[in-house]
Amino acid sequence: MDFRMLKNISFDFGSSIVGFEHLRHFRIDEVEEGSLFGMMVSEEEPEIGFIVVSPFEMYSDYEFRLSDEIIEGLQVQSPDEVTVLSIVTVNKPFPSSTINLVAPVVINVSREVGRQFILNNSPYTIRAPLFPERNGGE
């Protein structure tokens, strides 16, 4: 995931970030150049942010379908407009950190809108190992 393509854009997430429904606008910054990780920071309360990563970077077989309702709500015209991120829970030591695969953050970069969705009946977990090859997978 190249977070530079998201730089200087404020994305409207409505009230969809679970536990932070009072926050609407977030930007996504690089943690450091070339890193797999980004930082999703609230525009309303800059002290609130989340480490994010593309779930496909960590789980190459990760997949889900966007419903027609979600596609319409995000005004998606082409799959190229969509970026998917997952929120990371940072633990010590860092290799024991987890990734939320049940509630992906889906962004339409072209329209500058995004939503966090809960995948119903998902085979995934909210605390999947961030580095599955080190932790024996799910």
Describe this structure as you would to a colleague:
The longest helix has 6 residues, at 68-73. With 138 residues, this protein is mostly beta strands. β5 (82-89) and β6 form a beta hairpin. The chain has helices at 55-58, 68-73, 132-135; strands spanning 10-12, 25-30, 37-42, 49-53, 82-89, 98-99, 105-108, 113-116, 128-129.
Descriptive key words:
138 residues, mainly beta, BH3618-like, 9 strands, 10% helix, globular
Summarize this entry quickly.
The protein is mainly beta and 138 residues long.
Write the layout of secondary structure elements.
Blueprint (H helix, E strand, L loop, with lengths): L9 E3 L12 E6 L6 E6 L6 E5 L1 H4 L9 H6 L8 E8 L8 E2 L5 E4 L4 E4 L11 E2 L2 H4 L3
Antiparallel strand pairs: 1-2, 2-3, 3-4, 4-5, 5-6, 5-7, 6-9, 7-8
